[in-house]
Write a structure and sequence with these properties.
- The mean pLDDT is 98.
- Helix 5 packs parallel to helix 7.
- The chain has one domain: TIM Barrel.
- 51% of the residues lie in helices and 13% in strands.
- The relative contact order is 0.15.
- Strands 1-2-3-4-5-6-7-8 form an eight-stranded parallel sheet.
- Bound molecules: adenine and zinc ion (ZN).
- The site of adenine has 11 residues, from helix 4.
């Protein structure tokens, strides 16, 4: 990585906004804005227990992960048709483009939908069509990662995998999300082993609220390539050393961590510590409609609160592509675009 020329505070803000970046941790159901929830509830005749967009937005005050998930799953209940999934993803992809996200790897939670009788094909076809249109019409490269819900059984995850396999060419990997505490990674050892045999990329949420032990088992039992969140790793020096030595990416989500009370304030966030310890940390939005911001909001608010530097910004933008599942040539080309922005 190059040493940067002097960069003013003003120029740094401009770079945070306009430099090319990859987003690797976005739950597409978490991009569903209250306005779209209401529009879809009317379009599909599905009642939601809130009288207005404002009342729904006022309910977005969370004390921990579970308090958020309860509302997040309720919001997703308005999604029924292929066009609904397309519209949700397209709205996110437009925001991504506006934030100079040039590559995104999008999580989706099929069990949230199949449990309500929506077909797997409906979910995947809608999301995938939006990803294809993003490349063609927005110049944004986008791929899909299917997440298993960890509060459900491994058997349910296996059935979901079976259901999704006819669409194997429409998603690049699998992840693990939902309620972390009490649902350690090893609960999904066998289904992740099967996904590995199938050549899928593997990621898992670990160390968001859960202990460092969950990060160890995500790596050693599930054999994931990236850790989603991972911010609890700073409580374990041996783990920090390993993550740095092996360049295992952490997809960190600062505004999410603030809203779910993982850190009392954004100023207390440990992103700077992770970067200074040589970890491949990245910035991501997680559930932007619920946590008060998309990618650039995460960058701008985190830098304003913590005093991270231009060198940190450059490292974060480069890390986002290094940590991506892009093919080597595309990765190199995008890293060159980061260098061009910062070294100009
Ligand atoms: N599903 C959506 N957002 C999540 C998060 N932050 N942690 C776990 N599961 C999620
Ligand atoms: Zn997440």
């Amino acid at each position: 990585m190059n040493t940067l020329p002097p960069i003013s505070a003003e120029r740094l803000v401009d770079l945070l906004r306009t430099a090319p970046k990859a987003e690797l941790h976005i739950h597409i159901e978490g991009s569903l804005e209250p306005e779209l929830i209401f529009a879809l509830s009317q379009r599909n005749g599905i009642a939601i227990p809130y009288a207005s967009v404002d009342e729904l937005r006022r309910a977005y005050a969370f004390s921990n992960l579970q308090s958020f998930l309860d509302i997040y799953y309720a919001g997703a209940s308005v999604l029924i048709t292929e066009q609904d999934f397309y519209d949700m993803a397209w709205a996110y992809l437009l925001k991504a483009q506006a934030d100079h996200v040039i590559h995104t790897e999008i999580f989706f939670d099929p069990q949230t939908h199949t449990a309500r009788g929506v077909a797997m094909k409906t979910v995947i076809d809608g999301l995938y069509r939006a990803c294809q249109d993003a490349q063609a019409k927005l110049g944004v490269s986008a791929s899909l990662i299917l997440c298993f819900l960890r509060h459900l059984s491994e058997e349910d995850a296996f059935a979901t995998l079976e259901d999704a396999l006819p669409h194997r060419d429409q998603f690049i990997g699998v992840g693990l999300d939902s309620s972390e505490l009490g649902h350690p990674p090893e609960k999904f050892a066998r289904v992740f082993a099967r996904c590995r045999e199938l050549g899928l990329h593997l990621v898992a949420h670990a160390g968001e609220e859960g202990p460092p032990e969950y990060i160890w088992s995500a790596l050693d039992v599930l054999k994931v390539e990236r850790i989603d969140h991972g911010v609890q790793s700073t409580h374990d020096a041996a783990l920090m050393k390993r993550l740095a030595a092996e360049r295992i990416p952490l997809t960190v989500c600062p505004l999410s961590n603030q809203k779910l009370c993982v850190f009392p304030n954004l100023a207390d966030h440990n992103l700077g510590r992770l970067l200074d310890a040589g970890l491949c940390a990245t910035v991501n939005s997680d559930d932007p409609a619920y946590f008060g911001g998309y990618m650039n909001d995460n960058f701008l608010q985190t830098f304003a609160a913590t005093g991270l530097t231009a060198q940190h910004a450059y490292t974060l933008m480069r890390n986002s592509f290094e940590a991506s599942f892009l093919a080597p040539a595309a990765k190199r080309a995008m890293l060159d675009r980061v260098d061009a922005a910062f070294l100009a």
